Request: fold
Amino acid sequence: MATWTSTSSSSSNIRNTSTIFSCFSSLPPVFSQICRKTFTPFAGPRKKRRRSPLENMSVALPVSPPSPRTYSDDQPFLDYTTRKEDLRTAQVEDDASSPSKTVPRRKKYSQSPVKCFGVDLTPDNIAVAMVYFVQGVLGLSRLAVSFYLKDDLHLDPAETAVISGFSSLPWLIKPIYGFISDSVPLFGYRRRSYLILSGLLGAFSWSLMATFVDGKYAAASSILMGSLSVAFSDVVVDSMVVERARGESQSMSGSLQSLCWGSSAFGGIVSAYFSGSLVEAYGVRFVFGVTALLPLLTTAVAVLVKEKPVTASAWRQNNNLPDPGFLDTFKTSIVELWNAVTQRDVFLPTLFIFLWQATPHSDSAMFYFTTNKLGFTPEFLGRVKLVTSVASLLGVGLYNGFLKTVPLRKIFLITTIFGTALGLTQVFLVTGINRQFGISDEWFAIGDSLIITVLGQASFMPVLVLAARLCPEGMEATLFATLMSVSNGGSVLGGLLGAGLTQLFGVTKDRFDNLALLIILCNLSSLLPLPLLGLLPRDNSDANPKENNDIEIKSN
Reply:
């Protein structure tokens, strides 16, 4: 169920999931309520009154929600650094806008007449879409990496799968990036500066691959660094997405996620065909060099993010130092993050997502079979990748047009059953049954990849929507990143299980006798999580009255 780097990942599921897969003091809980309301000064002393338990609620307390929704997106999530700055910002904004308090707050964000997937293409939205586009276009290097590990380093399928899992490790600690982005401003900015830094890190890592790397350990380290670059930028833009998606209905959240992953799929289309032809014509080193230029787009679009500098003392700004209570803030945030994740409404859906992603797959073994046994060239595999990139975009469109209002349980049930059945068709290619019906290996591979990818992308979209809607207000980047890290962790575990099964069945770079059995076992294992569908929320997808057709991401 995962792809090569999981920077889509799953990377397609961790990026692949990924991405394809943002989010990571002790003040009284009532401050979280103050930060959400307009702060206006009052004249004279105010009589104190005793607060009821419902007013003094925190994430860890099992308070009955005011609405029948099963996810707790209205409960406060406290963070000293973030809340303190939000309160100061609210005071400044209210003072500046006091003469015209009748103007709706939402109008301060400009709207664009141009829409994509129902989302206004404002500068912030364009920046988010471009970062996802870069994630997709970085697929230019995936075939080059696969051929480099197979032909230059002469690794077996199991070793390749292990390196793939190792390179996905940065996607498992995304909550740390979320906490850093939320709590440690870099040069006065929480988002813009980290986007710039991520782009520079990615350019550096692929430059190493193009020049100095000549062994499997050095290659794994450089790929790991590039994965870290994409994962960190993913957390930053996802924090902006989650702020807008929280509180929206399933369909509106789905529209915003469709813009993100549609941009990623479009980037994959742009790079797909050339990923194979460039490898065949110029070699893998040249492709790595071209890939090194792409992360610089993330650095460039960071200027589009409309972000106000974080208010801090002049001393801390001049010395670029965190608050004196940084460690205390970190400990408190970890405790509160744990309290939020262990809530029933968050923990049970997250457990299902992990198990759903943790089923083994045979991607590495199939790559070796198609190249070493069937003789597929890099150029042809580039064409297959082009088809799968288009199919990924079609999968996003399928979800956005027909499935975003369907209950989550039904989506997972249908897509898992059909996905398992379609995945078994790879046995036809391995055994040659397709040739008995007059279908060439090339055409069968293209058609099979097209159908499987459409369904796979459509089934992965609900994971993103569910994770975004589970985030309470507060450290959106941290909590969303935590949920997606759990998903990515399941995908990495699935890849490692697939590597173990590949080794167990004796499938190597030139032995494929048991490959059909490996494919059957991996695909049937996808059905194992279905009895746990009851862990998902039983919700009314469009019950939110706040839904409207104009979606925009709020600037920080």
Residues 250-282 form the longest helix (33 residues). Confidence is low (pLDDT under 50) at residues 1-110, 540-556.
